[in-house]
Design brief:
It is built from four helices and 45 strands. The protein is mostly beta strands. The chain has three domains: 227 residues, Jelly Rolls (Sandwich), CATH 2.60.120; 180 residues, Galactose-binding domain-like (Jelly Rolls); 140 residues, Sandwich (Jelly Rolls), CATH 2.60.120. The strands form ten sheets. Strands 1, 5, 24, 36, 41, 42, 43 and 45 form an eight-stranded antiparallel beta sheet that branches. Strands 26, 27, 28, 29, 30, 31, 32 and 33 form an eight-stranded antiparallel beta sheet that branches. It has a seven-stranded antiparallel beta sheet with strand order 2-35-44-37-38-39-40. The longest helix is centred in the first third of the chain and has 12 residues. The chain starts with 12 loop residues before the first helix and ends in a 7-residue tail after the last strand.
Length: 589
């Protein structure tokens, strides 16, 4: 049934507004961030002001007002995070990954046994059979020479992300009295943390960050410093000092024991993870909030690979590769993943005739290992992707005619699972299109509210629309919504979040208003509101006012396209979390 309006009467409206003002102050969806209200368990704005249309994917019955047209099936992600099939002519509600609450953490030191990548300066490093805090051996003894210099170990090959918080830590035990242990990283804003090996007292002497020390027993201490990376090339120094000052000094042969160096994302030192791979090693995975239901609207797309899951087919060329079909549980919940094992210089590839395209596939393997994947003229191209330990979709955009997994580049994974390969034209990967013997085309999502369903909520003279949407790039006139007569000549629309047009109004083929904002990076949730009536057009972008327009007329319209432009074309190619309409200008709310 159509979504029926439940409007506040003119008699009660002053009372409603008074209540809203008492609780929130002056309510204006263009000035405030309405997300704070609408996502509440019981929205006072929704209760008191009564929008006449509220498309909320978390409440499926609110989508019944939409007429959905899409020939054939298409995929979406269900509430369990599995790839599932949507029936023809249905609104696809994609359960997108919730917000990242804690990031993935890696041991970013490639050789924690100091066997490679480390340089000893002003001293020597030797093995000691003294037990480490976890009871293992060996640990490592750094002994200063008698020269006048710094007496230290350093590693300069740690890849970092500028602006990310990192914590550097190590375990240390006194051998000689009167010495300090220093952790120093020029890559972390020049932070320097000292530990007095006689007293166990730690001091931060340089840089903006924090320092912590824990007594591990048996005279072992763990010292850690935390700061923000200022470069992408990580230097870390661990050294002996004869005072709480980082200077050259004349050594006397003093020494200390070091074990368990760790360089990780975040502000807390995790349990030590040994690593001798020469690459970052997975410690913990990211944690996410609950999945978020969003309307998925995409244009038509074709998977140009005839065998998206059967990698044993001769269409895929293999070199030094062992495949095991039906190896594990795939992203769709079936036992159809393929295990791929490399031996020597290896690759698996498929070729086709296409120029500009995006390739994608699902992969799963040992967290922290790297797979080389992509598309190009040959297998030397592509990009490196770090595995998380769970299924993840990776994608690469380029030119050429070969999709491949290979041992080129920085690949370190030689045993992992693959599933659901896809090649399509364009610069982004759309939802997965399974194939089995031929290419497959997924039809576009056509979502419209028209006829009595439209007239039941729409006010021909004024209105306010609030949206929360995520776009995957800007192509032509792809839009979050369009209110029109099926032409651009009579239309009110909002472009994709990665475009700056919050509100465009066209009447009689002439632009009446064009309200812009700053653009937003692709893949970012954007909250926008737009109000329109005769000679009064306003907009906002994430709670910040856009420009306004005080001259213009309102077009004659008869439908609302969800995730499409004024003539049902130019699909959003993204997600809509919320679309709300009030039959009033914001000045009246």
């Amino acid at each position: 049934m159509p979504y029926r309006p439940h409007l506040v009467s003119s008699t009660t409206r002053p009372i409603v507004r008074s209540l809203v003002q008492k609780v929130f102050g002056d309510f204006d969806p263009l000035r405030l961030d309405p997300y704070l209200f609408f996502d509440a368990a019981t929205s006072m704005v929704g209760t008191l002001e009564n929008p006449t249309l509220d498309l909320d994917p978390s409440k499926p019955d609110t989508l019944d007002v939409i007429t959905a047209t899409r020939a054939g099936t298409a995929t979406f992600t269900n509430a369990n995070g599995l790839i599932a099939s949507a029936s023809p002519n249905t609104v696809r509600v994609d359960q997108t990954q919730g917000a990242e609450l804690t990031p993935t953490v890696y041991q970013n030191i490639g050789y924690t046994d100091f066997s490679s990548g480390w340089t000893a300066e002003g001293g020597t490093l030797t093995d000691s059979q003294t037990q480490a805090p976890d009871g293992t051996t060996p640990v490592y003894e750094l002994t200063e020479n008698t020269g006048t210099s710094r007496h230290r170990l350093f590693d300069s090959g740690i890849p970092l992300v500028a602006g990310q918080d990192y914590t550097v830590s190590a375990y240390v035990k006194k051998v000689s009295s009167g010495r300090f242990f220093l952790i120093n990283s020029s890559a972390l804003n020049g932070i320097k943390g000292f530990l007095n090996l006689d007293t166990g007292v730690a001091t931060l002497t340089s840089g903006t960050g924090t320092i912590a020390v824990t007594n591990e027993g048996d005279d072992w201490y763990r010292l850690s410093v935390t700061a923000q990376a200022t470069t992408t090339n990580g230097f870390v120094y661990m050294q002996l000092q004869n005072a709480e000052t980082d200077v050259n000094y004349t050594g006397t042969g003093a020494s200390m024991l070091i074990w368990g160096p760790q360089f990780e994302e975040g502000t807390t030192a995790s349990d030590f993870v040994a690593n001798t791979s020469g690459n970052p090693k997975f410690i913990t995975g990211a944690t996410f909030g609950p999945r978020v239901p969003m309307i998925l609207v995409e244009p038509s797309a074709t998977n140009l690979l005839p065998y998206s899951e059967d990698f044993s087919n001769s269409a895929w060329t293999k070199n030094n590769v062992t495949l095991t079909a039906d190896y594990g549980i795939a992203p769709d919940g079936t036992n159809t993943s393929t295990r791929i094992q490399y031996s020597g210089s290896s690759y698996i590839l498929d070729s086709f005739a296409v120029s500009d395209y995006t390739v994608s596939a699902f992969v799963k393997g040992v967290a922290g290992q790297v797979v080389r994947f992509g598309i190009g003229a040959n297998v030397a191209g592509g990009a490196d992707f770090t595995l998380s330990g769970e299924w993840q979709r990776i994608e690469h955009t380029g030119s050429g005619g070969t999709i491949f997994f290979s041992t080129f580049g920085g690949n370190t994974a030689t045993d992992f699972e693959i599933w659901g390969a896809q090649v399509e034209t364009g610069s982004v990967a759309t939802s997965y299109i399974p194939t089995s013997g031929s290419t497959v085309t997924r039809a576009a999502d056509d979502l419209v509210i028209s006829g009595s369903a439209f007239s039941s909520f729409y006010n021909a003279s004024e209105g306010t629309v609030y949206t929360e949407a995520v776009g995957r790039g800007y192509f032509d006139f792809n839009s979050v919504f369009a209110i029109s007569d099926n032409t651009f000549n009579e239309s009110i629309y909002q472009r994709t979040p990665s475009n700056n047009q919050v509100l465009v109004v066209i009447d009689g083929g002439n632009v009446q208003a064009s309200l812009g904002s700053s653009t937003t990076p692709t893949g970012t949730l954007v909250r926008r509101a737009a109000s329109f009536k005769l000679n009064n057009f306003k907009g906002s972008h994430d709670g910040v006012d856009t420009n306004s327009d005080t001259s213009g007329t309102i077009p004659t319209v008869d439908r609302l396209y969800v995730g499409a432009s004024a003539s049902a074309q130019n699909k959003l190619n993204g997600h809509i979390k919320r679309l709300i309409y009030w039959p009033y200008h914001s000045d009246s709310l």
